[in-house]
Amino acid sequence: MRDAGLIVARTLELLAAAVRPGISTGRLDALAEESIRGQDAVPSFLGYHGFTGSICASVGAEVVHGIPRADRVLHEGELISIDCGAILGGWHGDAAITVPVGDCDPALLTLSEVTEQALWAGLRAVVDGGRLSDIGAAVEAVVRPHGYGLLDDYTGHGIGTSMHEPPAVPNTAPQGPGRGMELEPGIVLAVEPMVTLGDPAVTELDDGWTVVTLDGRPAAHWEHTVAVTPDGPWVLTALDGGRG
Fold first, then answer.
1. Which of 64, 135, 231, 236 is deepest in the core (most CB within 10 A)?
2. Helix 2-18 vs helix 25-38: crossing angle, to nearest 10
C-alpha cells in the first residue's frame, strides 16, 4: 500500500504543478491517468460504479466527486480539489489536495490551509489504542473555531484491497473522542475532511456524482491514506516518508 500511495502522491504533485488558468479538468485527468499507468498501476476511480475519470476534479462550490471534463476550464481565483487513487498489486492508495488557480482571495487560501491542518490533526489521532471518534474530534477542533462548515454525511473510509472498506471515518465527533472501534496495527484508513466556506448543506447534481454546496460558496478537500503502526501513524500517501 505504501507503493500505491507513493504513486498517488507523485501524481498529485504533478497535477498541482499543472494547475493554472486555462487548463481543463479533462486535461488534468489525462495527465493523471498517464502518470498512474506509467508507474505500472491502475487508476482506482476510472470505471468505479461508472465514474468516467481517473481523478475527481471539484472546482469552487463543488465539494467532492466532480467529473473531469474537456470543457471545464479553470479560471483565475478558483480553488480546485483533486482526489486521486491508484491500485498496485491489488492494493489501493487514495489522497486529495486542494490547489489555488493562479491568484486567489486570501480567504480561500486560508480555507484550504485550515482544511489541510485539520487533516493532519486527524492523522495524528490514528494511533494504536485510539478510538475512531478521536479522528473526527481532532478534525473538528481545528475547523470549528474558524466558523467553517464541516460535512457530516460524507466521510473517510477504510481502504485496502478495495478502495472503500469499513469503517466509515467521520470528520465530526458529536459525542466526543474515545468512542467507536479501537484502532490497532494493521488498520488502514483514508482520512478526508471536506470543509465549506459557508453553510455545510450540500446536494448532488443530476450527473449522480458531483456534490455542491447549496449556498454556492467554495469548499476545500484534503485526504491521506494512513496506517496504524506500533510506532504511530504512517501516512502512506505522503512523499516525505509519512512517519509521525
1. 135
2. 150
- Residue-range domains of the chain with CATH: 2-235 (3.90.230.10)
pLDDT band at 55 (very low <50, low <70, confident <90, very high): very high
- pTM of the predicted model as reported, rounded to 2 decimal places: 0.97
Cell reading at 65: 466527486
Average pLDDT value for the chain: 97
What's the distance, CA 40 to chain centroid? 23
pLDDT of res. 240:
84
* Cell numbers found for residue 204: 448532488
The b-or-e profile of 133-156 (16+ CB within 10 A means b, else e) is bbbbbbbbebbeeeebbbbeebbb
Closest CA to 185 of 242, 127, 143: 127
Q: Which helix (H) or strand (E) holds 233?
A: strand 232-235
Q: Who contacts 153 (Cβ-Cβ below 8 Å, separation ≥6)? A: 202
